[in-house]
Here is the input.
Amino acid sequence: MRIHNLYADENGESHFRDVEVDWAEDKRTSKLSARLPAHGIIFRQSPATYELDWHTAPRRQYIINLDGGVRITASDGEVREIGAGEVILVEDITGKGHLSKSLEGKIRHSIFIPLDEAD
Here is the structure.
């Protein structure tokens, strides 16, 4: 299972990389990862016209797209389209940030799972 990861390097440039989920156990007919730390859950609805200029992530968090998708541009120029059912770990909380734009002119429902305690 692949997770998109958006992070900032020591110069503040944002980049993508892929992170593979490590399977910790086989249980019945499924593979499970180890339990990962998280702090709550946030449900989000983004309008079909959603388009954000350069910004950093507000916190380190997983974002799970339920429907619709988002086009994210890292400051190094790489563009990824993250569709329904895909997961991205955003960690570019400092630096130049990224661009975000709704795909296909659809409302997007997503779930944010913060990794750090609330500010």
User: Anything to note?
Assistant: The mean pLDDT is 95. The chain is about 0% helix and 55% strand. Residues 44 and 77 are 26 Å apart (CA to CA). The longest strand covers residues 2-8.
